[in-house]
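User: Can you help me understand a structure? I only have the sequence.
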Amino acid sequence: MSKIRLGLVGCGGMGHRHLYGLAELHRTGLCRFEPVVACDPKTENAESLAGHVEDHFGIRPAVVASLDEVDAGDLQAVDICTDPRFHHTVCADAASRGWDVMTEKPMGLTVRACRLMREATDGAGRILSVAENYRRDPVNRLAKALLDAGVIGTPRYMVHNTAGGSNKMLITVWRHLKNVSGLLLDVGVHFADILEYFMGPVSDIYAQTRLHEKIRYNDMAGKDPATASRNSPAGVYEHWQAEMPAEFEVTAEDAAYATLTFQSGAVCQYLEEHATFGKGFWHRGIYGSSGSMELPGDRSGQPFTIALEGKTIEGDALLDLVPDFALDEATAALFGGDRMWKYSFPFPETDRKIIAIEYADFAEAIDEGRQPEVDGYMGMRSVAVSYGIMESGEAGRAVTMDEIMADETNGYQKEINESLGI
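Assistant: Let's start by predicting it. Here is the structure, written out as tokens:
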């Protein structure tokens, strides 16, 4: 079977993380892609990525500053890892050339941008896959199987509370800027997707939001990346962080306090705080009509427990409750088994394994002519849940997912859409 010719668009930190994920899939022998183009207006980024492709795949992709330098027949698919402002334009360009598309999350910078992406790919008959990773964690796969099996009964409510961050820069400057992303979107879409993965569609949202820390600080500014502690996600961002300012003004909110109602009638208490000093915390729990489930942080590999009346179930005993549970071929090959309740890898390795699963699903969708697991509709919903929180905060009232998905309530997004010219 011939390989799918892939272009990597956006070759900065996230682009490098994606390449490492693709290489991880390549090592299993299950990779269907051949990376033949590295595209970035910053030539040094594209050259760096091309060098890593050569190291892992034995081929050096063409380095281009724009997709205009690529003939339509040279590619079959692209993976978009630019900053979110460009997702919708690159997606539409790629679809018009007949290429299938995988894009990093958030799918688009606004709900309207997401709609443009869906219209472009649907109109061209191309696949649109969103690289959403938390649901692909083997521990979350097991949790989903247990929920579907009714082990804790009918889910009634969920708690998703996370806090930390103080006044430090999270990965990059642009993740703190409203017109480029903002933390409640960049991080929030992960949480939005996992909430709907576990609990089904959100119907209503009531929230307040805050911007607590109006100045953020970059501890890596001016430092030698070679001497860094490599504590950024996947240890790949220090090179770029060293060139970013030591302090900068923030324009996007950093905290959300919300109640989300699902179509099932279940409710979620939601706290996302990126400006907490002192001791941070994490709590994700699901509570049903006959038991509860306490879940670990995503991509941590940590086990979880189920509490039923009078007993606690954990470890291998969780697998006994879902005898038919099995991970897909790629996940099993990457993590070393098809029935797992925990795993232990350094975070950079876990990160690239889960990105590899995204690629495997994208390739299968292309080969089989099916929709990917996280398609344009699901990717748009995650963006809409995140903006539902912000739109509710802006409007001072509860909002429905229907009005957010229809782009009828968009007061918070108005400025962003205007900056995008859409």
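Now, to help you interpret it: The CA atoms of residues 184 and 347 lie 23 Å apart. The radius of gyration is 21 Å. Let me know which part you'd like to focus on.
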